[in-house]
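anyone seen this seq b4? input:
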Amino acid sequence: MTALTLPLKVDLKHVHLTDEQFYQLCLSNPDLKIERTVTEDD
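predicted toks r here
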């Protein structure tokens, strides 16, 4: 098993979640701190 370094940054540029989908992702994973960046460049 591979160890992960936290915080874990995941690139979801090509996933294109709507606000509602992102909200549901957060609700489904209450143990995770999930954030979006302000700009689409990150």
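The chain has one domain: 1-42. The chain has a mean pLDDT of 83. kinda curious what u guys think
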